[in-house]
Description:
Helix content: 25-40%
Number of domains: 4
Largest sheet: 14 strands, parallel
CATH class of the largest domain: Alpha Beta
CATH architecture of the largest domain: Alpha-Beta Horseshoe
CATH topology of the largest domain: Leucine-rich repeat, LRR (right-handed beta-alpha superhelix)
Distance between the termini: 53 Å
Number of helices: 14
Mean pLDDT: 83
Amino acid sequence: MDCDKGIELYLLSEEDAWIMFKMYAGISSSSSKTLIGKGCKIAKECKQLPVAIAVIASCDRVHEWDVILKSLKKPVSMQDVDDDMVEVYKCLKFSYDYLKDEKVKGLFLLCLLFQEDVEIDVETLVRICTGMGIFRDDYCSYNDARNQVVVAKNKLIDSCLLLEVNERNVKMHDWARDGAQWIGNKEFRAVNLSDKIEKSMIEWETSIRHLLCEGDIMDMFSCKLNGSKLETLIVFANGCQDCECMEVPSSFFENLPKLRTFNLSCRDELPLSLAHSIQSLTNIRSILIETVDLGDISASGNLPSLEALDLYDCTINELPSEIAKLEKLKLLFLQDCVIRMKNPFDIIERCPSLEELHFRNSFNGFCQEITLPELQRYLIYKGRCKLNDSLSKSVNFDARRGNECFFSKETFKYCMQTTKFLWLNGMKGGMEKSHA
């Protein structure tokens, strides 16, 4: 962990720290002097750190305050941590441990697998959490898993461990991210592939379970990862504008037998073939790929554990028929994708376990007819109108833009009966504008 850089801490004044502690602990002027005295001592040991105050003061068992105070006063030794940060990290670690809910703790550590200072999309957290198995399959539907992530996210916000940007995004403080790296120790790692030392480290380190890599795409797939325990791989890659289609070697994923979540985002569209290499990922549950020309993705039909497939701003030859063989596929997300051939809805309607479909501006000239299976959640979007994706079932379709297509009679009836919002423009059959 890089502890030489300066970390901007959000610390309260002593007065504000005590006000916050009293508010979270429910201390008032009518409280006993003993309670006020203990609370004041603990507030000081929280080092004016909001996260420590929020978690510790919210403890329902006031009789544990003596134990808490003793723990906070106990000196600790931390390797590779600057002296002025030791007390902060000690409070952060205590606050993290005191959360007790393993799902909430897992979500907190997961957030360090995103680039520094970025706004983290909650839907992406849902994909990765379910892929990682944070909820241990303790959910009946994909939307149930989403709700559990939102609950855990809100607990972290209430505890000041995450910052809420808006309803769809969160962020981590720099100090919280560095602290999470220290807590996650060797299991959670973030590396820059341009740093030869960091790159060599992930090639020999065997304890990494969750990994963020940033750097050149060639450096990534030329790595000889010793990934016998790796479960999550998130890659933010620089593309290569002049290079031809790069084929990921089969040996790359063969070294990752336990991989459950794979997230690849490229800054520039990159031609990349995963056709043969991903077939060894028999445990993969979530795949998220952004800004990649994937070409043939038929091999994805050979991933028996796959639950969620997200493609954003990608190019594919077609939505392959093999997808319909995936018995565990619950969610399909296609946004701003180019699909070169065939009507993707011919495949979508045959997916046996599909619960959610997010299909946004990915229509092609072959989409002459749109047919949907019964779904728990769907967002069908074509056009430039503002999209409200908080609705569980929504159709926003401007048929005047691009090639002409229409809903089958059965699908139109299904949408009319189930949708929360329906907006159609220029559809066959004289439909101009409808609301439901």
